[in-house]
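Narrative progress, year one. The postdoctoral researcher (J.K.) led the effort to move from monomer predictions toward full complexes, under supervision of the PI. The following entry was the first complex the group processed end to end, covering 590 residues in total.
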Amino acid sequence: MLTQLARPVARRLVALIPVLFGISLLVFVLNALALGDPVRALLGQRGDPELIAQIRKEYALDRPLWVQYATWMGRLLQGNLGRSYHQQRPVSDVIAERFPATFRLAVAATAIAVAAGLGMGIAAALRPGGALDHLLMGAAVIGISTPVFWLGLMLSLLFAVWLGWLPVSGYGDGALAHLVLPAVTLGALHTGTIARMTRSSLLEVVRQDYVQAARAKGLGEVTVIGKHALKNALIPVVTVIGIGLADLLVGAPLTETVFAWPGLGRMLVAAVGQRDLPVVMGAVLVFAMIYVLGSLLVDLAYLVIDPRIRRD
Amino acid sequence: MTERGPFRHHGIQVGGALVALFVGAALLAPWLAPFDPHEVPTGLAAASLRPPGPPNALGTDALGRDLLSRVLYGGRVSLLVGVGVELVAALIGALVGLVAGYYGGWLDGLLMRVTDTVMAFPSLILAIGLIAVFEKPGLDKVFLVLVLLGWTTIARVVRGEVLSLKTRDYVQAARALGVPDTIIVFRHLLPNCLAPLLVAATIGVGGNMVAEAGLSFLGLGAQAPTISWGAMLAEGQTFLASASWVAVFPGLALMLAVLGINLLGDGLRDMLDPRLKR
């Protein structure tokens, strides 16, 4: 199994190189295009010219663009993302500090979305066209169409302000109660897509001969679905889970802002407001890397679940 | 086969009704709005954060401005960005897709590599990063950024369609007869790409509206005095505990509009192009 997997895995890793290069170039161009002078923004229009010159030299802002890119890329390969204009410390430190909160939120949101989405999809598929099906799929469509930040506000209003069951916002030193609302909010869109895909995929699989055969054999509905149909029905669901990773990352800045969650997303928003470009570049790069690596993981999960793909 | 049986038949009707309501309210806002949406009443202390009830059907905001009027006017910005961005993005995307699909070769390789790289980013993250390029945020920058990111889906859809269309006999025949490329592309290929293009663009409009509202909510989009649902929600968050209506109604309007567009887009997809049905 392992040796079988080695080649496709290696091929996918190699295919990542141009994408990562493209991402780095795009992020750099973004910085180079920046209108207005961030150094002047930092020091004010009356900043000491000598100090300004010194900072420009330090960040290589006085060199041609391709030299800047080469310098930046060289540092990047050593894991050096530059220094924050605003906080006067390495961007990697700032990101490392904020990363765990976002990671925790994303993992919790994914767990909720996968558990709830699969449950809803299976329940809806058991009796297609029934009342429960209508109810659950209606909820899924609403979950998909509700903008994540408004959903966060409404959940916060209901469960924190009105019912008082959960805290309104904040990290609460990692207390679980603080994680619930942000994770549900961030996972809602994802729950909806997983539920819909699970339902349609299951309905397709149960029509196939081998499932009919299992039924004809006299197996109970739970065994038929749970043991025979679900495994094959899950293959397209894995894709949706992978695509959903992008939704999670996109939702992070909004959800983190609604719930004052000290993660990467809120850091990115704050850095844009302060025009702290090294932090913006670092955060965009990290988000893109997480996304690309996440897609890779989904590809690998595919290889494990579906043996047919391994042969290509 | 169908992804959402229950909504298949009613999707277009419900979606169409919601979209008609949204577009109608946005276009007719100057006649429908009971108050001037920018007007701060003189008796500010008394009018501030008034709960829903006559004469303010949806209540007032912190500056005593009528919320219903502001929600109606906010729809104009949402519609303008949603549809306006999509028109430009679809134009660019269609051109890229037609050229890449029809000519193929290195040009196709290059264009699709660029498309892939833009698509490799979670879009809103890149949008936030691109906003940082400008000295001051604003609706015009949001428009530009969303166009820059929005053409890729359309390009992919159109390219895929052209790749299959150009092997058809009628296109081959036109080429053999020496019909110029531009005529083949615009007269014979483009009209046959319109159905999937329309579906992708419809869904795109909803995406643009959510993105605009999200950026404005984060303070990176529309700035006062421009009225945007996203910016209204940011204000609503401040008063969530004391005046929840400020956060409820603009978001409800956005959600219903996007829900309508998604239902309509899904319905159009089922109707126009059965092959696209997942």
